[in-house]
Input
Amino acid sequence: MSDRQKFVNTAASFIGCKEADGSHRQIIDIYNGHKPLARGYAVKYTDAWCATFVSAMAIKCGLTDIIPTECGCGQMIQLFQKLGAWQENDAHTPQPGDVIFYDWDDSGAGDNTGWPDHVGIVESVNGSTMKVIEGNMRDVVGRRTMQVNSQYIRGYGLPKFKDGSATGESGSTGTPTTFPPAGTSLAFKVGDMVQFSGGVHYTSANATNSSGSPKQGPAKVTAIKKGAKHPYHVVHTNGQSSVYGWVDADKVSK
Output
């Protein structure tokens, strides 16, 4: 089993733990048993524990070198940034094992840069729909189903799993990165407005199976991976198109 899947499966094994019967205390104990404690603080059973949950899963899986331990969401983002594993782009299409952060004050306009309020672990992605496992979700470890690029997404921590790193469209600055060319040049750059001709899109730049057949129409390039099978990540800009994912180079034009 890959480290990525182990991280997800471990989180899933705690679903149902809750404050009401005290079963969430084992999560707090895992966190507090790991030294050194972030900022020297031992989490109380009455504290908010969403970041503590993510950290405890990393501790159980022996992945604290790539998933920083923290009991605060904002401080955890800062640690992901220091690791060069932070994705600022709200429109990022995640993979299982990515760490998703939320800001409940997000207005929905532009890139959300507010202070994060909550965090979870992406469990699965199916087209534009993803499932997230969250600790302290109404005082319980539970699942949330939501759309990729939904409102309230603050960004993603992308753990650099040894057996399959995250997609890597960004570094610690949060700026989408273009990868070195592999014998080909691309006509567009991140931020360009393009016309999507219709057909299929994919959940990753080198995916084999498509994740849907979106409608044609105007879209925006949000990430690029040169040398990949589907080098452009594009997102529709109005109701005319429904594209949201990675597409072939010949599917976009000015």
